[in-house]
């Protein structure tokens, strides 16, 4: 076998250093330092345990992961979390400003329970435009787990329970203001997370499968299969993505339902987005296909797909996970851009891109800047995914030095 110290010798040499409390040399990497501290635990740890130890040291990645989990929890329970019906139109509250949550009223009295003042609408005598002001004589306390307007959770069962709201369902609660039709912007952002976040996740899963399958076949089989797949990849990568997305999305009939448009959008984004992953997988397979473990699997009678998915893929699975995580925000941005341009998701569907369509009017945004808040949700989601992807990419090589 290889020369040098055996595993048992390394363990025995590491234990005295950890017991004596000696400091590790400055040139040692993070996991080498962990070796002197953990002793046998490091040597018996699996690949995933080593990745987890390294990932935990990346503070921004941990924060990004927490935000991503929060966004997906919001997408799953959006009916319960939204304070209002996102499609309820209130003509008397068109472009109403956000209602501030307060603990201290106008008289300086402190309240442990947060509250909002009731909105009242008046006509500006000079411009004749509607203006909104707080009626400081009427306070509405905010409560958790209130009974609000009925909804069907995931279309399965009916409920009226909402996380936060006001006891009187007829009283408005616009924590992020209202849009041009008087609909609650916060509730629409929460509902928009379901479409925008799921399109990114499902689109990446499909493109990942196509990239791994076609890239694996291209790198493993070679020959005319490699030539055909690579020419298709080069053709897809040579086309400008946004015009291609727009051309495919614009071909969808206007009479299609939101559900059909949703799945077609996922298909379009996936079919175009698999080429990058296929190139990465092909390069890895070109270097792996002549390795001894691949030859041994072939001699044992394993078929091509088993060799690819059972023996070769796990060799760089951590890299694939990191690349996939970094590909999700690209999918979210693509859906947002197409919906913003009017060729993606369409009303009455609610996605972040659809909500940003109202921000196309500069004059409206100048007087109602809260209409840009869906863009903040997009920025937060993309940054969180990028932080998490950076942490996973570093953790994919747990034996690397710091």
Structure description:
By secondary structure, the chain is of the alpha+beta class. 56% of the residues lie in helices and 12% in strands. It folds into 2 domains: 90-183, no CATH class; 189-395, MetI-like fold (Orthogonal Bundle), CATH 1.10.3720. The protein has helices spanning 7-20, 30-38, 40-43, 47-56, 59-76, 78-81, 185-221, 223-238, 241-250, 258-273, 275-288, 292-299, 304-312, 317-340, 352-356, 362-367, 373-395; strands spanning 102-104, 110-123, 130-141, 143-153, 157-165. The strands form 2 sheets. Strands 1-2-3 form a 3-stranded antiparallel sheet, with no helix packed on it. A hairpin with a 5-residue loop joins strand 1 (102-104) and strand 2 (110-123). The longest helix is centred in the middle third of the chain and has 37 residues, at 185-221. Mean pLDDT is 81; it is low at 1-28.
Give the key terms:
single chain; 402 residues; alpha+beta; MetI-like fold; 2 domains; 3-stranded antiparallel beta sheet; two-stranded antiparallel ribbon; 17 helices; disordered N terminus
